Automatic annotation (TrEMBL):
Signal peptide boundaries: 1-25
Keyword terms of this UniProt record: Signal
Name of the protein in its database record: Secreted protein
Source organism superkingdom: Eukaryota
Length: 175
């Protein structure tokens, strides 16, 4: 009977040890992934600088001006619906204050740096595991926000290109 309990205790101990080692390995892997994500997110956020946002805003202003000139000079007899939709989207972006977009990006950069500091500090000192989990959670959220930001700018780029092509064709006399 003692032998059976002892065998069971050994099996449970080995299982728990394996579980904890697996858990530690998973946690270490998660930390490595988070560290890689931080670098990737920082790289992406750095691409969306204030000057890039201002340049896009200026480009959209030029497109809107050219498009309105085309409309008033009747260079194009019929404007396709996708072009109207693109113009509406660009106009909406143009009318939104760029200072808000810049502020959101600054906050994302700042928060990302704070979370990175928490993780780096946790490697040196013993920090509450909840604080580390919180940092990982915030970093994942920032990653989702960055993904949405990239999608937004891809959509803007597509619509800018569509409008530029249409304006060029209109100025060349294609109707």
């Amino acid at each position: 009977m003692k032998s059976a309990f002892r065998s069971l205790a050994i099996i449970i101990s080995i299982s728990l040890l394996g579980y904890f080692e697996l858990s530690n390995a998973a946690e270490n892997h998660m930390e490595e992934c988070i560290e890689e994500s931080i670098e990737e997110y920082k790289e992406v956020i750095c691409q969306y600088t204030d000057s890039r946002i201002d340049a896009m805003h200026a480009c959209i202003a030029d497109i809107m001006k050219s498009y309105k000139q085309m409309q008033t000079s009747n260079l194009c007899s019929k404007i396709p619906d996708p072009i109207k939709t693109s113009f509406d989207l660009l106009e909406m972006f143009y009318e939104s204050p760029t200072c808000e977009i810049k502020q959101i990006l600054r906050e994302m950069r700042s928060t990302l740096c704070e979370m990175e500091n928490i993780i780096e500090t946790s490697e040196i000192e013993e920090i509450c595991i909840d604080k580390i989990k919180y940092a990982h959670s915030v970093i994942r959220t920032i990653g989702e926000d960055i993904s949405e930001l990239i999608q937004f700018y891809i959509i803007l780029d597509i619509n800018i290109n569509r409008m530029q092509e249409f304006i060029m064709q209109g100025s060349l006399g294609y109707k």
